């Protein structure tokens, strides 16, 4: 019989498991606290539980932990990038960023990605598999234990398309934000998507208070199709409708991620088109100077063009920021470190 992944179980599910073992409900609470508050690395650390009970749990359940096989620290801003090894030998990336408002961790939701976005290193080798809820949680817990610092913000914006791993993503969010666990506020959780419209609408109906970030990157369907294959299936009109629906259902404004590529989408005309496209949306635009990858010939927009683009949007009364570049000297772009590690292995 295949073992259940105990760290992917909700407290209610864990209580049912304990009942089947003939244990009292409080046992589930003890286990849950060890896993999600104390972030124990295994049953053997749970010292207020009997050895016999811990042994039984080890026989019945899979206990997911991730080991960091590489850690890189930026000499520029202290950002740390972690490469975690999974049980099957695959590796995933996570990034720890220190801000004045608290510490953020950017995690991966899949091993590789099948979305094919042209400026992203994550997708170059396709999709290997999706991550289980515990494997997503363990990136947060692992970074917290290794940095010895509390994580206050979690961004699901690393390798993979989160909405392509929808059910596991939902369980992860509910475990991460559960008041009986780490209890990170849902408002401090951001999920990024390249724009899978049906899943965006489904997410709007889940009763969550997370931020949804849409990777937009272009102002016309024609341009977007050249950058993002998902645009062949879902056009900008559909996307804007889904964004408005998300705000209507959740009251949470959308973040539009816009990677600026020199000579491709960074002209003032593009800024005008972007303003027209998102007109009427309750939103925030995050401008991202593209992080060049060796496998593509995209060039980062120069500083002057980035600020001109920002100023143009602000004239349209659009809330806009330029993403602070973090970890540029440590394979900062999604998928870069994993890809280099695989090539060296």
Structure commentary:
This protein has helices at residues 11-20, 25-36, 51-60, 133-147, 166-177, 197-204, 221-227, 236-250, 268-277, 303-315, 336-344; strands spanning 4-5, 61-62, 67-73, 80-85, 91-99, 102-107, 110-112, 127-130, 153-156, 189-193, 211-215, 254-260, 283-289, 320-322. With 345 residues, the chain is an alpha/beta fold. It has a ten-stranded mixed sheet with strand order 3-4-5-6-9-10-11-12-13-14. A hairpin with a 6-residue loop joins strand 3 (67-73) and strand 4 (80-85). Helix 1 (11-20) crosses helix 2 (25-36), helix 6 packs parallel to helix 8 and helix 9 (268-277) packs parallel to helix 10. The two termini are 33 Å apart. 41% of the residues are buried. The model has no long low-confidence stretch (mean pLDDT 92).
SSE layout:
Layout: E1 4-5, H1 11-20, H2 25-36, H3 51-60, E2 61-62, E3 67-73, E4 80-85, E5 91-99, E6 102-107, E7 110-112, E8 127-130, H4 133-147, E9 153-156, H5 166-177, E10 189-193, H6 197-204, E11 211-215, H7 221-227, H8 236-250, E12 254-260, H9 268-277, E13 283-289, H10 303-315, E14 320-322, H11 336-344
Parallel strand pairs: 1-2, 6-9, 9-10, 10-11, 11-12, 12-13, 13-14
Antiparallel strand pairs: 3-4, 4-5, 5-6, 7-8
Helix pairs in contact: 1-2, 4-5, 6-8, 9-10
């Amino acid at each position: 019989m295949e073992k259940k992944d105990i760290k992917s179980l909700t407290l209610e599910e864990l209580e049912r498991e304990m009942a089947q073992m003939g244990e009292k409900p409080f046992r589930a609470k003890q286990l849950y606290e060890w896993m999600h508050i104390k972030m124990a690395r295994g049953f053997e650390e749970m010292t207020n539980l009997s050895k016999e009970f811990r042994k039984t749990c080890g026989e019945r359940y899979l206990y997911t932990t991730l080991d960091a096989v590489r850690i890189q620290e930026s000499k520029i801003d202290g950002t740390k990038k972690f490469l975690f090894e999974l049980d099957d030998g695959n590796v995933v990336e996570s990034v720890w960023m220190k801000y004045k408002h608290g510490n953020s961790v950017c995690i991966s939701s899949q091993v590789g990605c099948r979305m094919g976005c042209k400026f992203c290193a994550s997708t170059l080798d396709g999709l290997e598999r999706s991550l289980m809820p515990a494997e997503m949680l363990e990136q947060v817990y692992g970074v917290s234990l290794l940095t010895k610092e509390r994580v206050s913000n979690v961004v699901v914006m690393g390798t993979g398309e989160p909405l392509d791993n929808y059910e596991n993503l939902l369980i992860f969010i509910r475990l991460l934000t559960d008041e009986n666990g780490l209890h990170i506020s849902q408002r401090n959780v951001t999920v990024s998507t390249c724009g899978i419209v049906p899943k965006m609408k489904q997410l709007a109906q889940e009763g969550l208070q997370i931020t949804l970030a849409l990777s937009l990157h272009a102002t016309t369907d024609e341009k977007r199709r050249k950058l993002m294959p998902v645009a062949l299936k879902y056009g900008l009109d559909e996307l804007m409708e889904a964004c408005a629906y998300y705000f209507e259902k959740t009251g949470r404004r959308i973040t539009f991620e816009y990677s600026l590529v020199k000579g491709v989408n960074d002209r003032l005309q593009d800024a005008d088109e972007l303003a027209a496209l998102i007109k009427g949306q309750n939103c925030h635009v995050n401008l991202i100077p593209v992080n060049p990858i060796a496998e593509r010939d995209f060039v980062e927009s120069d500083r002057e063009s980035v600020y001109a683009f920002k100023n143009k949007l602000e004239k349209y009364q659009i809330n806009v920021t330029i993403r602070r570049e973090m970890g540029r000297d440590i394979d900062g772009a999604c998928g870069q470190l994993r890809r280099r590690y695989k090539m060296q292995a």
